[in-house]
Write a structure and sequence with these properties.
Layout: H1 5-12, H2 24-41, E1 44-49, E2 54-59, H3 70-73, E3 77-78, H4 84-87, H5 92-110, H6 114-117, E4 120-129, E5 135-147, E6 153-162, E7 174-178, E8 183-187, H7 190-194, H8 199-209, H9 214-221, H10 225-239, H11 244-253
Antiparallel strand pairs: 1-2, 1-6, 2-3, 4-5, 4-7, 5-6, 7-8
Helix pairs in contact: 1-5, 8-10, 8-11, 9-10, 10-11
Length: about 260
């Protein structure tokens, strides 16, 4: 369940990085850097490489708050731009808002000059399930780490560390900071989170949850079966799920219904 994946991939696609010859020693230098970084913050660091569509991961032995399996905790390379093994542990409500924050952050920074985009940092505080099945608050940071010689985005850094603030609050308190100017913009994502699905899509999903067929839904809502099926497909795409049962469960977890 990874909402906005299509939209974020479209932002990634604005970079023509695949045509460049890049110095892989730079990647190794940054991988060494995140090893040192996790020793300090006791958490997890991920570098996503747009040129290979891979992610490089370092997890500190103390990072039990992440709830990773022993096999996942020793992963060093993931064949994806996204750390899916971590995303599955994020509370579904918070994951939607995190992806909204990332989308806004990438939209904003990818359109900037190469030098300027390195000055920005996105932050949030979200809930992640630990090894005991309890949710803990985690500080999350995203930042563009390296551009290509021609000025496209190349490497993106994402950090996870146990938050010193474990007070329960609504929303992930997402911000985008300009580090040179010292300005902090707070993003209001809760309302956007709630409008991931249209009111008609929510209405249809409630009918699906009751066990109604497309024909029954069409009759109840005075629309065609084709329209119902189109809405059903849109719901699956928006929630990044494979079937209606998963869609109902995802929408309930995200409190969309």
């Amino acid at each position: 369940m990874d909402v906005l994946q299509k939209e974020i991939d479209e932002v990634y696609a604005t970079q023509s990085i695949a045509r460049e010859t890049l110095d892989k020693n730079i990647v190794e230098q940054h991988r060494s850097f995140i090893h040192s970084l996790t020793k300090v913050n006791g958490g997890c660091a991920v570098i996503s490489d747009l040129s290979t569509r891979k992610s490089y991961v370092v997890v500190h032995p103390w990072a039990h708050f992440l709830g990773l399996s022993p096999e996942e905790a020793v992963l060093s390379v993931i064949d994806s731009m996204d750390e899916d093994c971590i995303y599955r542990l994020i509370h579904p409500e918070d994951l939607v808002e995190k992806r909204l924050m990332e989308y806004k952050f990438f939209q904003k920074t990818f359109s900037m000059s190469a030098e300027e985009r390195l000055k920005y940092r996105g932050r949030c505080r979200l809930r992640m399930k630990n090894g005991e099945g309890a949710y803990k608050y985690i500080d999350n940071l995203v930042q563009i780490l390296e551009n290509t010689p021609s000025g496209d985005v190349w490497l993106i850094l994402c950090l996870y560390s146990l938050s010193a603030d474990q007070r329960s609050e609504q929303g992930i308190y997402a911000t985008i900071t300009h580090m040179e100017q010292g300005t902090v913009d707070t993003l209001s994502l809760s309302e956007e989170h709630r409008t991931i699905l249209s009111e008609r899509e929510k209405e249809i999903l409630r009918c699906i949850r009751k066990g109604m067929s497309s024909k029954e839904i069409a009759a109840a809502l005075y629309i065609s079966v084709n329209t119902v099926n189109r809405h059903r497909q849109n719901i699956l795409v928006k929630l990044s799920v494979g079937n209606s049962i998963e869609a109902c469960r995802a929408a309930e977890l995200m409190k969309l219904l």
